[in-house]
Amino acid sequence: MILRVSFAAVLAALALFLSGFAFADAPPLKAANGMLVDSAGMAVYTYDKDEAGSGKSNCVGVCARNWPPVKAPAGTLAEPWSIVTREDGSKQLAHRGKPLYTFIKDKNAGDKTGDGVGGAWHVVEVPAR
């Protein structure tokens, strides 16, 4: 018996199969100038008061207004990415278990004026390849 399958049906099946892997292949942030940045090119930071792997953020209220949490995308993430559920139920992106933030005083792509603030905020560095 010969099975005839249209090319369109094969492509549709392949797209459905690969859709579960699409996000894992493309990290939600990118490297630029030796640091992680969001889609707008803004530096991404970690906060020393957040414990890696704790699943929570210690930057809330006024802190979160000055250091906006990086929103987590929908779907499943592959290491080193994970998701933290904030007090208000929103989802925050984490890198190596540490919640991620931007800084309100960074105005242009590539700014990293928050690095070292209070001795507790650090830009997420990416080693050169």
From TrEMBL:
Is Signal included in the keywords of this UniProt record? Answer: yes
What's the protein name? Lipoprotein with Yx(FWY)xxD motif
Q: Which Pfam families match?
A: Lipoprotein_15 (PF03640)
List the top taxonomic levels of the source. Answer: Bacteria, Pseudomonadati, Pseudomonadota, Betaproteobacteria, Burkholderiales
PANTHER family under this entry? BLL4220 PROTEIN
Q: Where is the signal peptide?
A: 1-24
Give the keywords, sorted.
Signal
Stretches assigned to coiled coil: none
